[in-house]
Amino acid sequence: MADLLRDTFSAITEGKAVSRETALLLARYPDQPKLWAAADRLRRRFQGDYFHLCAIISARSGACSEDCRFCAQSARYRTGAPVYAMIDPDEAMRVAHSSAACGAERISLVTSGRAADKAALPHFSVLYEQIRQETKLELCASMGLLDEEMARQLTAMGVSRYHCNLETCARRFNEICTTHTWQEKVETLKTAAKTGMSLCSGGIIGMGESMEDRIELALELRALGIRSIPVNIHTPIPGTPLGQLKPLPLNDVLSAVALFRFLNPEAVIRMAGGRQQLGADQYRCFAAGANGAIVGNYLTTQGNPAAQDIARLREMG
Ligand code: SF4
Q: What is the CATH number of the domain that holds 135?
């Protein structure tokens, strides 16, 4: 056991991928702070000290037909989440400008719903164009399940990355959602890649899954070649079926982040929604393998003030 971290670290630097069996051993490594520190060294070795910031605009909110059990935006649950079909363009541009000012490199239009709303595309097109003209932000989209025509239209608008979280590993997916499948999400990612977009996909930890399930998800993302992996920490939202779950303990969060780094050494591991629940300890994720974050607010949960994030990240070097 004593040499497990050293041997695994050496194997990764020689270009070998960590196996499922080794990842399971790492998950049981008794000295967790050493595991986190090794993941931090891997982050530095493969990604340097560059920190990746991005932001999202909740372009359409609520009234979703799907039944994702964690989500405040499903029309099936009473959560009080905002419901609107299209964000006010002035509000969207305010978010874009403030995100650019605090160092975000990318911004995503995110819409609720099973699939992208084709009727809304002209509005998105205008918004993307305005963001392009007024900022240097790269454009992303996160609009649910995608067909090839829609993917091509987004690419033509200058969208260079598509986001679709797998949410959880394949074997658990129907415990989380029954109205669409894990495979449909994978097909969406493949369609986006086919039209030239890069991919962003991760999941939510703390929805009752085991560390083995998290390892499966990290392996699935690796098999898909994902290089931008958002890690959300489940925020129990009253009114949703998972609203009574207890938040994941800090040590489990840090070990999950570390394992994502071991299994995906060349990816940006991006802390996303839910990290604010950890208070000041959330920044320890960036010393356990993570090297990116979504700044500002998330879809239905409040994020940190971006200035606070930037100040803490600067302190951490
Ligand atoms: S995660 Fe997306 S698809 Fe699922 S309920 Fe929420 S908005 Fe709808």
A: 3.20.20.70
